[in-house]
Amino acid sequence: AQSVTQLGSHVSVSEGALVLLRCNYSSSVPPYLFWYVQYPNQGLQLLLKYTSAATLVKGINGFEAEFKKSETSFHLTKPSAHMSDAAEYFCAVSDWGALTFGSGTRLQVQP
Amino acid sequence: NAGVTQTPKFQVLKTGQSMTLQCAQDMNHEYMSWYRQDPGMGLRLIHYSVGAGITDQGEVPNGYNVSRSTTEDFPLRLLSAAPSQTSVYFCASSRTGGDSEAFFGQGTRLTVV
């Protein structure tokens, strides 16, 4: 069975600082990996996805993630945090469309 | 383009009542699914469907029924609501295939008292 672990349920950064949200996965086959973002009282929106085409994946709003098979990781980064990045972020692995999510990381951005 | 539409947005039920959460998509996606979101647990898959007439159970199916009579609609039924079903429910749709982006509805916040 596939699983996803997100380290840190809450992360706080200053505006302009680096954002690093951690995700480790477990999968017996090459995985399809996703990062979704959820703004308050809204549904989830895709940030980026890894589908084996390239290990460094660029997404929307300046986010990117690097797939590292040796570390079974897919960490999400953004060089400079903006106040509008405050949200909850979910890493997920897909099994033919059925998503298994991590428990989520709430990002707080301090002015 | 409406995407994925869920109704209602909010609902309060008494224990033992039944109800149906509606989900409709206008993207002609074959794959549809229901998730529940609980604090600290992320989203967990309840049921999914790979096409009209085909449904299957996810991780937490107990207490829920689904059917898929059309490509567009995928309702979720609570047969006899329990307080443990208090949650936020999300419907999603996508093209078939593990690399496809899932599109989510705005969610239904359900409280069972």
Structure, explained:
The complex is a heterodimer of chains A (111) and B (113). Chain A is an all-beta fold and 111 residues long. Chain A is 0% helix and 55% strand. In chain A, strands 2, 5, 6, 10, 11 and 12 form a six-stranded mixed beta sheet that branches. A four-stranded antiparallel beta sheet of chain A has the order 3-9-8-7, with no helix packed on it. In chain A, a hairpin with a 5-residue loop joins strand 7 and strand 8. Chain A is globular and about 40 Å long. The termini of chain A are far apart. Chain B contains no helices and eleven strands. Chain B is mainly β and 113 residues long. In chain B, strands 2, 4, 5, 6, 9, 10 and 11 form a seven-stranded mixed beta sheet that branches. In chain B, strands 1-3-8-7 form a four-stranded antiparallel beta sheet, with no helix packed on it.
Topology:
The complex is a heterodimer of chains A (111) and B (113).
Chain A: E1 3-5, E2 10-14, E3 19-21, E4 24-26, E5 32-38, E6 44-50, E7 56-58, E8 64-68, E9 73-78, E10 87-95, E11 98-101, E12 105-110
Parallel strand pairs in A: 2-12
Antiparallel strand pairs in A: 1-4, 3-9, 5-6, 5-10, 7-8, 8-9, 10-11, 10-12
Chain B: E1 4-7, E2 10-13, E3 19-25, E4 31-37, E5 43-51, E6 54-57, E7 64-66, E8 76-78, E9 87-94, E10 103-104, E11 108-112
Parallel strand pairs in B: 2-11
Antiparallel strand pairs in B: 1-3, 3-8, 4-5, 4-9, 5-6, 7-8, 9-10, 9-11
Features:
heterodimer, A: 111 residues, mainly beta, 6-stranded mixed beta sheet, 4-stranded antiparallel beta sheet, B: 113 residues, 7-stranded mixed beta sheet, globular
